[in-house]
Design a protein that fits this description.
0% strand, 89 residues
Length: 89
């Protein structure tokens, strides 16, 4: 491992603390709650993702059952009336 030398002319000096770092959980939690951008409405986002998931699952199950991609027609497709295919229209 190569050690990086400090450039003291540029201001690369190590930071030293006069006292030990003490984290107070109550004050940290209070500062975190005051930060508006940290807390977003996750319930709305979760609902949107759940709805998207259910729609994709429904599409997958429908394609798997019909054995066709969307908008593809054929005589083996189970959701069509057989008489309309034989009439040509």
């Amino acid at each position: 491992m190569k050690k990086k030398t400090l450039n003291l002319k540029k201001g690369d000096t190590p930071v030293r603390a006069n006292e030990a770092l003490v984290i107070e959980p109550a004050k940290s939690w209070q500062r975190l709650q005051q930060a508006k951008e940290f807390f977003v409405d996750l319930e709305v986002q979760a609902h949107e993702h759940h709805q998207l998931f259910l729609n994709k699952l429904m599409e997958y199950e429908r394609q798997n059952y019909l054995k066709y991609e969307p908008y593809e027609r054929g005589p083996e497709r189970t959701d069509q009336c057989p008489s309309t295919l034989s009439d040509g229209g």
